[in-house]
């Protein structure tokens, strides 16, 4: 599931999922992530700055069912919230072309 507040980015995500042939596997919702429900999600991908991740952390803990995977792009979820990544990986940075960034995988 993707929750995107910017309507243009939401439309872009839907188009790219369709072009990649994975639109049947992805749900993109327009809205504010702070007001989103994660109860039905099997995978949550977050690309937020650390202060927003800290604010979102309790909501994820409260709503994500056991077995839900959470992937954080660039910034890890706060360890003070009890988050410890199951795995990390390095990938191309989609914002800064030619650079690399980290992915953090968490399992509820």
Topology diagram in text:
Blueprint: E1 2-4, H1 7-19, E2 28-30, E3 43-46, H2 50-63, E4 69-73, E5 87-92, E6 100-107
Mean pLDDT: 91
Instruction: Find the structural class using helix and strand composition.
Output: alpha/beta
**Integer-rounded radius of gyration:** 14 Å
Q: How many domains?
A: 1
Query: What percent strand?
Result: 25-35%
- Sequence of strands across the biggest β-sheet: 3-4-6-5
Please tally the helical runs, counting DSSP H or I stretches of 4 or more residues: 2
Oligomeric state as shown: single chain
The CATH class name reads: Alpha Beta
The low-pLDDT segments are none
Q: What is the CATH fold-level name?
A: Rossmann fold
Spatial separation of the terminal alpha carbons:
16 Å
Helix fraction, binned, reads 25-40%
The topology string of helices and strands comes to: EHEEHEEE
In this structure, how is the largest beta sheet organized? 4 strands, mixed
- What is the number of strand segments? 6
CA-based shape: globular
CATH homologous superfamily annotation: Vaccinia Virus protein VP39
State the CATH architecture: 3-Layer(aba) Sandwich
